Amino acid sequence: MQYASNGQKLYVKHCQNCHGAQGEGLGKLYPPLTDTLFLKEHRSQLACIIRNGMRGEIKVHGISYNQQMPAIPELTNIDIAFILTYITTYFGNSKTHFKQEEIAEFLDNCKK
Amino acid sequence: MKLLKLSFLVFFGTYILSACQSEQKKLPIYGETTTVTNMVDGKEVVDSVYHTIPDFSFLNQDSVLISQDFFKDKIYVANFFFTHCPSICPTMQRNLLKAYEKYKGNNKIAFLSHSIDFKYDQPYVLKDYATKLGVDNDQWQFVTGKKQDVYGISDKYMVFTKEDANVPGGYDHSSYLVIIDPARRIRGAYDGTNDEQVSKLLSDLDLILKEYN
Hints:
The complex is a heterodimer. By secondary structure, chain A is mainly alpha-helical. Chain A has a single domain (2-108), classed as Orthogonal Bundle (Cytochrome Bc1 Complex, Chain D, domain 2). Helices cover 48% and strands 5% of the residues of chain A. The longest helix of chain A is centred in the C-terminal third of the chain and has 15 residues, at 77-91. The model of chain A has no long low-confidence stretch (mean pLDDT 92). Chain B has five helices and eleven strands. Chain B is globular and about 65 Å long. The interface between A and B is medium-sized, with 12 and 15 residues.
């Protein structure tokens, strides 16, 4: 519960302007965060995307997106754990949360 | 029974009041106003001279030169943004999109977004952005121009813009959405990141449409 409310505060501050208050994205510019299949399949890369940003084409809900997402290097591992827990439980259908230790491991293995 | 009577009275009273108010209400005219004195039929007549948006010429998302003529006889909403702005623009454009969708097809209303990133936001970049945002007609113009022209005209719209390396994205600007009437006068300015002000923008657009009907 704690995780989700801290996550919401961080989401509003860092993510909501592009991804929307309901995680709906914006047109074909910024993807929604409601594709539970995408979240599941890319679980180990999500922390990298949040910390380092990303570029290149991705498909969400079958629709192609290709804008650059900015990095947010000032986010700590626990911040990222909060945000991902919030996103996957509120916009996705996950019932589990991300642990800080998981995030550290994910970030060690980010694709260059 | 008493409660029913009272609530009926309140409803009726509010209706009368609001009907009266909406009849007389017009959007104010903003900006520096001066006066000019003319001789009409031998008598001195004092007229107000309002602040207006000057002539302009910018390249739009289809690489066509757009000027004030495009907006002749129209009410338009203007703002300043850039396509890879990470902070306020997504919210501002998301909200302006609501206005675009509400008045889509109404040829008395148009939208003009000026890019303040004259280095990166070439017409094809603006076109890509506009299409992906969900704009599929020429009612919403996205334009680019020389630095001094865009930043110069932002002053006329009373919107703050500045190149600033210390700000995310490198360009600092305010998120105001400005309503311009067919006489090129400023009739309202609304913070595009504030839901309440965006609602007011939508209701004020209805109001000014009535004025120019």
